[in-house]
Amino acid sequence: MQPIRAAILILSDKGFTGEREDKSGPALKALLEGRAEVVSVEILPDDRERISSELCRLCDGGGVDVVLTSGGTGLAPRDVTPQATLDAADYPVPGIAEAIRARSMLYTDRAMLSRGVACVRGRTLIVNLPGSPKAVAECAEVILPVLGHAVETLRGDAYECARK
Known about the structure:
The protein contains six helices and six strands, in the order βααβαβαβαββα. With 164 residues, it is α/β, with parallel strands linked by helices. Strands 2-1-3-6-5-4 form a six-stranded mixed beta sheet, sandwiched between helices. The radius of gyration is 15 Å and the shape is globular. 38% of the residues are buried.
């Protein structure tokens, strides 16, 4: 299989303006080491149209297999990542978000307040993760084992999905 090409999109007003140092992006990049080539790391403000537009650009360019977002998945009025992601989506992949929330509930009951989604645009998987480095690591544990198969399937290279 060709290497997985990943983009990381951090969504934070304070991170974008430099008021807060982003730590989830570097944490996510480290977690992907040896599993994916990170081709892009960007920070954007919590702006629905801007996020959706950037997701479309990353997916439609043809060079990214997966976009992992971090931040903007809570209940605050500025938390618009799920809405922006669905604006860019061709179709949802609810099992990923369900699995992330189920695992996160083992660590905190506040996980049920996460609104993160997962979807596909074109041949690119998009997954919303929470904004903290600790939560990013916990959630990455859930998706990393299936990431290769998801990418193979989206590329059209996986012909047998059943496990032996």
